[in-house]
Amino acid sequence: GAVVSQHPSRVICKSGTSVKIECRSLDFQATTMFWYRQFPKKSLMLMATSNEGSKATYEQGVEKDKFLINHASLTLSTLTVTSAHPEDSSFYICSIFHVDEQFFGPGTRLTVL
Amino acid sequence: QKEVEQDPGPLSVPEGAIVSLNCTYSNSAFQYFMWYRQYSRKGPELLMYTYSSGNKEDGRFTAQVDKSSKYISLFIRDSQPSDSATYLCAMSVGNEKLTFGTGTRLTIIP
Q1: Is pLDDT of A100 > 90?
Q2: Could you give the CA distance from residue A58 to residue A69 in angstroms, rounded to a whole number?
């Protein structure tokens, strides 16, 4: 099956700094990638749809200026959490859709101190 | 009302038992139904996928969909300790943008 990688797997940063998370599709070209956020004991919530070569589509309530998405190639999408605050601490997961299945990355755990 | 409701558990059963996991939904436009398994600090992995009412079996796993009642289930037979994980139901209208349940944390006791 498709393999999706994320980097880093874990990051701890100070409040006010920016953090970039990479999502790579290793087996397939992906014109669309999805970014999810998962708080402890909560469901995955779709944050945005990343579109290669165009602007991302954000879900209601997600600040596009805070969560910057860049989908510069068919295999790479990045999510930058700008001016991170403790409430942004969460598990961020990307996914790609191929044929009938959505393949998820291993996730990035962000802790903002 | 949430679009997808799932009992968060936790659920503990002895090894070998049959496990039943359930989700209800309110959006009648959902056409695709999935069950994912998520181990601690890992991304979800697809277990079962279906788009029609009825049962679908894959080894020890059976997915059941009842569109008229807006209810889906996942049954695990002969449960094993390695089945211990969080199980998430997910559904979509156009099989790309997924709406997840909260997940049920399952523990199989040896």
Answers
A1: no
A2: 10
Q: Which of B91, B97, B104 to mutate to test the interface with A (most CBs of A within 10 A)?
A: B97
Q: What is the CA radius of gyration of chain A?
A: 13
CB contact under 8 A, B44 and A42: no
> Chain A residue closest to B32 (CA)?
A100
- Condensed to tens digits (0 to 9), the pLDDT of residues A20-74 reads 999 999 998 988 999 999 988 788 999 999 988 889 999 999 999 999 999 989 9
| Sign of the CA dihedral with B29 first, then B33, B35, and B38 last | negative
Q: Which of B42, B45, B100 sits opposite A43 (nearest CB)?
A: B100
Q: Kindly identify which residue of chain A lies nearest to residue B37, measuring between CA atoms.
A: A104
What are the tokens at A20? 């970039």
List, in sequence order, the alpha helices (H) in A5-111.
none
The pair of structure tokens assigned to B26 is 């309110």
